[in-house]
Known about the structure:
Two copies of one chain form a homodimer. Chain A contains nine helices and 15 strands. By secondary structure, the first copy, chain A, is an alpha/beta fold. Chain A folds into two domains: 4-125 and 303-334, Quinone Oxidoreductase, Chain A, domain 1, CATH 3.90.180.10; 129-278, Rossmann fold, CATH 3.40.50.720. In chain A, the strands form three sheets. In chain A, strands 3, 4, 5, 6, 7, 14 and 15 form a seven-stranded mixed beta sheet that branches. Chain A starts with a strand and ends with a strand. The model of chain A has no long low-confidence stretch (mean pLDDT 96). At the A-B interface, helix 7 and strand 13 of A face helix 7 and strand 13 of B.
Amino acid sequence: MSQMNRQIRLAARPVGALKPEDWSHVSEPVAAPGEGQFAGVTRFISLDPAMRGWLDDRPSYLPPVGLGEVMRAASVVEVTESSHPGFAPGDLVVGSFGVQEQVVSDGRGALKIEPSLAPPATFLGALGMSGMTAYFGLLDVGALKEGETVVVSGAAGAVGSLVGQIAKLKGCRVIGIAGGAAKCALLTEELGFDAAIDYRTQDVRKALREHAPDGVDVYFDNVGGEILDAVLTRLAMHARVVICGAISQYNNETAVQGPSNYLTLLVRRARMEGFVVFDYAPRFKEAAREIAGWIAAGRLTVKEHVVKGSVDDFPAVLQMLFAGENTGKLVLELE
Amino acid sequence: MSQMNRQIRLAARPVGALKPEDWSHVSEPVAAPGEGQFAGVTRFISLDPAMRGWLDDRPSYLPPVGLGEVMRAASVVEVTESSHPGFAPGDLVVGSFGVQEQVVSDGRGALKIEPSLAPPATFLGALGMSGMTAYFGLLDVGALKEGETVVVSGAAGAVGSLVGQIAKLKGCRVIGIAGGAAKCALLTEELGFDAAIDYRTQDVRKALREHAPDGVDVYFDNVGGEILDAVLTRLAMHARVVICGAISQYNNETAVQGPSNYLTLLVRRARMEGFVVFDYAPRFKEAAREIAGWIAAGRLTVKEHVVKGSVDDFPAVLQMLFAGENTGKLVLELE
């Protein structure tokens, strides 16, 4: 077979912000699928803030991506050839197939998607890990109750835009924190948030005093840093702070900025709790069913930011996350 | 009545470490108890790290001590005169009576103590707020389970020394962090801790790796700062970090040092939770009964650090807490 598989591999452990030299762009001959395997072509690649953490050589919830390895990524693959009983040519499959054009898989962790439910990219976002993260982080870790006040940061991102909408569907008051007027307008005008705070131009602490005068019951934190510290000053009694991520800190060359105001947890009898979405795998189906229902009923708006290109564009597209250039789920569609 | 009541009042809002000028020492005529009131003389005054927080003019779980007001403190008072049906001359009473020699009270929040159960000072410590804090912080907020590994900082202090012993009584492995060889020896040789770490001479992170190779299930934090950060790196899956206090940070003139390693909460699916012991008031009796039983059975060692003097010594004795000079519950006994 003369066809080549283009891949993005990790070339160096990044220090601080990602650089082009941290990646290698390689082509290798396409492997033929063995017995019980399928082969496919990548159609959509998911880009996620968590990817930055996977590049560091330190203990985490997944082993780091090894130097020289194909970059880990969830993607949607179209099956082209299969001797696996569960997958047939033409099937669209979602899984952790990595940043490469061609995939050979034994089907482990691969899930056939139902294209009638939603467009393929949505299975990386609202019906994929972003949706699962929003759903279980908010409802399970955050233990959300009807009538509460919810604040979410990174509110125009893949997870944040869903967190806010799910909280509204559950009868809560929702305030989103995002960067820039366009994102803030999206939150209140299109996604139904009760208020939006532009952290680039507004004093977050002061704005929270106005929009959440009785305090914040659930804070879903995607960003860390100064925004986390600002929200901590406004916690209601028995508040829950859900630690989903800390994108403001991922490219730090110095230590992460710890939340200086963590002692409000004591004053407010509040808790701060982390989670990893994979722990909820046994309940993914249940969540996906509810989210798909909301989408079908027009009660949940799915925001996707699809960039068309080749796998070679992956490093540049990934940077968009850290520059806050995406709105909704960032996806690379291979042309 | 010509007798005078000596008092310590707050003269200035302290900035950073407490200074003698932050206090005023005043004498005023003793008030006569009115109808339904009792009068008494102070015998023992409790000294607690939380007192530092009460001096700052910022929202907290109690209003700040006002400028010019008698310093808030729990104490044991001996009733000398009473027209209150619940209290008779000779009774020993515990309550928040303040740093003063003479007390007049309508009995609100006052509790008659049973001297046969324990010496009076113990009702400020193991059978008082220190005991309640250790008990509910560890068992309720920490949700301790038999067989777990517990780490406590400020381990030779009033609360810490009880936390470690209660955890042992509940079948856990216990590691105490304290300052100095003498305190560490106390923990392992007298109080039954499995290991002690001297943060002044040892690398806490490295020592935890040795003493808690499988990670820390419950961390009871009295100190904050670098020790909190060190323990965060060693959390076991689903760990609970109980935020009881942060004595290392109370005298800061700059911002509190936030826990830089808080993202391990995510990696380890762990939570960090604050509490205020007063919320458990309806259950104090239940806890006191169990603690008194342990003391009576010789299963719990009560450490008290009693300094004899006058109310004028209060400011100097309070400093001992921040210098780490006390072992066990610090009490000022009025002579």
